[in-house]
Design goal:
- Helix content is 51%, strand content 8%.
- The chain has one domain: Orthogonal Bundle (Jann2411-like fold).
- It has seven helices and four strands, in the order αααααββαββα.
- The longest helix has 26 residues.
- The chain has a two-stranded antiparallel sheet with strand order 1-2.
């Protein structure tokens, strides 16, 4: 069976950091399909998610080819960041307080991002550049860290939910529905499966009682 690409993932979370968390399939289940299997996947996802341009992706991949060990180290750093983000926001989705350990880990990454950031003059005024040095292989991760920081300190942090799929989808999203009734990462996927399961359950019940 052909492995799915990061470009087959749906960006349905409403926030970059949560879409990054969703690069692991069935995140709350037992079987977890991995989409970030190499630095190539990380760079491709960064382009797909709008963090970097195609030209910047090509530049990163050229550097990664010259420094494969460094690229692998950055991939592992990215996976650690993803799991930290998942644990923090899945706790929030379950109305629990994130652990001090996870907040400590995230604060370390946030501090490094802030050290790389700077105000700079552009054609439209003064902007805050969070990218840091584009000579490094890990600079796209700054956008993910920044996204998580903004969500955690916003008035929408308590809108974070986890997909209600019983199999353990575990995908996270911001519920911006009017009455906060969204239950599924995507109605076309997990929502449709749940709908089919309910239908077959009702059908089975009717068949059982019709035989009585």
């Amino acid at each position: 069976m052909e492995k799915r690409s990061v470009r087959t993932l749906k960006l349905i979370a409403g926030r970059l950091c949560l879409d990054f968390s969703n690069t692991l399939g069935m995140h709350a289940g037992k079987m977890k399909p991995e989409f970030l299997r190499s630095y190539f996947d990380l760079a491709e996802w960064s382009n797909y998610a709008g963090i970097i341009t195609e030209e910047e992706e090509r530049a990163l991949l050229r550097r990664a080819e010259k420094s494969p060990e460094q690229a692998e180290a950055v991939l592992q750093k990215a996976l650690e960041l993803r799991e930290t983000i998942f644990r923090i926001f899945s706790s929030i989705a379950e109305d629990a307080v994130p652990s001090e350990k996870d907040l400590f880990l995230f604060n370390k990454k946030l501090s490094r991002m802030l050290r790389c950031s700077k105000l700079q003059i552009t054609g439209s005024g003064i902007e805050w550049n969070i990218a840091g040095s584009k000579e490094t292989l890990d600079w796209p991760l700054n956008a993910v860290i920044h996204s998580a920081f903004l969500l955690l300190t916003s008035d929408e942090w308590d809108k974070v939910k986890m997909c209600a799929d019983e199999r353990g989808c575990g995908w996270l999203f911001v519920d911006n529905s009017k009455n906060r009734s969204r239950r599924w990462c995507d109605m076309a996927d997990c929502g449709n499966l749940a709908k089919q399961k309910r239908y077959h359950g009702r059908k089975h019940t009717r068949e059982v009682f019709s035989d009585v």
